[in-house]
Specification:
Elements lengths: L1 E5 L6 H12 L2 E4 H11 L2 H10 L7 H12 L8 E4 L5 H10 L8 E6 L2 H9 L1 E4 L5 E3 L18 E2 L6 H25 L2 E5 L4 H17 L1
Parallel strand pairs: 1-3, 1-4, 2-3, 4-8
Antiparallel strand pairs: 5-6, 5-7
Helix pairs in contact: 2-3, 2-4, 4-5, 6-7
Length: about 220
Amino acid sequence: MNIILMGPPGSGKGTQAANLATSLAIHAVSSGDLFRDHQRRNTDLGQLARSYMERGVYVPDDVTIGMITEWINDPDHAAGFVLDGFPRTQAQAQALDEALSDRGGIDHMVFIRVSDDELVRRLGGRVICTECQRPYNLNSSPPATAGKCDYCAGELYQRDDDKAEVVSRRIEVYNQETEPVVDYYRQAGSLSEVDGEQPVDEVATALSEAIGARLVG
């Protein structure tokens, strides 16, 4: 299956995307993963993306779509994929559909819905490993050792955009960008919504049930 998993910052979609991909024996990727990979390998697309990012402006859709399309067309991903948090705009969704026109398009988009108040609470306590990028939450899922990653012992830090003074604005911007995308897939008949305020394992179960219903359907 070709699946999109979306949710606002703090919804836990990164963790759920990885778990979902493992359970379905397919691969998951985010646009951020691809940006980092292309820049690490210094590809043409990576250099182009860097030129925009260094100026503090959004990377154009055609560059991002180019990275996504290249990744999707890798034979290792022929069985399907989970796109983590992409597309972010309706224009990206339409471009993605065009890129996938010969592969049946997107089978299912699942949106993890979380209230703004809960997102502010979660993001205010989020820290990330400097080495492996694994996220923790000091309120709900702290590391075993303060300031250290449980998996690689990397130092933990709080991103500037996770600080309280900018969290609310991030959520507002995300909602403005993403609601048209949610509506786009709703109108296409490929949308499911999952309550993201449940415990992590219950969210995972709800996602599996949503995907399973789509398979049966």
